[in-house]
# Entry
Amino acid sequence: MALSSKPEFAVGLLCHIKAMVDNAKRVVLTAHTHADGDAVGAVTGLMSVLGRLYPDLNLTPMLPQGCPRQFEWMPGAALILSGESERERCCQALAEADMIFVLDLNTPSRLDNLAQPFTQATGHKILVDHHISPDQAAFQTIISDHTISSTCELATWLVEALWGAQAIGSEAATCFYTGMRTDTGGFAYSNTQPSLYHAAAMLIGTGIDPAEINNRIVNIFSERRLRFYGYAISNCLTVMAEQHFAYFAISLDVQRHFGVGYEDMDGLVNYTTLMSDIEFGALIREEKQRCKVSLRSKHTDVESIARQLFGGGGHRKAAGATSTLPLAETVEKLTQYVASR
Ligand code: 5GP
Ligand code: MN
# Structure
């Protein structure tokens, strides 16, 4: 059967990447700030593949805030350095790396506190990503395909093309499957395509347990977090019925009261589009000096909203941005735009 959307890689490009890895001594793997399952899965999955194939290779995984708590169970996650609390080690590893794999982002600014040491680094910078418009000037090698469900799926196909499917052991498969699962809302979003199922079948064939991975991804709420969701739905949700738009505005005070952080907010925005009459929704979360905006839609192009209003980006139906305005003004800017479109 034809794999219509399976990515194809130029032979010359594959040879080039393989030769670089063959000759590398120190490799850094990193991904975007406030890492999600796809970012952590791509970092740990690729690290597992490289570790098995090249036992002498010095591998340093790092994320701007380290590994989020909910992904600490993933194989290799304990090795991920934090750009915040282990800054020195991160900067040193970036400066000494022959190769830097950058995963699941399209511009170095998404590396947050690691953006500057990354930009200064002299090692070969290779991007593997599925967002639109990758920053062409920031990387020497770019593997980018926004038609692919997730960076983990793209990495799975890339590894298969480079070293064959047998290079993916059950640990790497667990990591890659997790990212594919989280970025597609459990094989439900419109980025769910034939190649995703083929990649998933390949990974499940290594003996991983999809039901257990599902448990670790979905059934992870604390009582505090669940009660916060109840409060937010009752008190922090505004519906603009005429515009078919709904949004959560979550102040720092509310976050402090419930003792919740950004990790606990993951998924809350999806409650807006649970309503049949709502076409797109937002979550605006106050941080210390800025606000984080998350946008989701059923059909509307929210990537362009994130980009135009706040200089953000992402995907057509799932985008995000950082607003430098205070909470009330961020809400005002977004709702005025929505009301006038
Ligand atoms: P989330 O709402 O889950 O934070 O992000 C949804 C999508 O938007 C993800 O694909 C993410 O990479 C992208 N995204 C989130 N925040 C930003 C941002 O500040 N800038 C850009 N360019 N993309 C973002
Ligand atoms: Mn992704």
Notes: The mean pLDDT is 96. The chain has two domains: 11-217, 223-340. The chain is about 40% helix and 20% strand. Residues 223-340 form a domain with the Diaminopimelate Epimerase; Chain A, domain 1 fold (CATH 3.10.310.30).
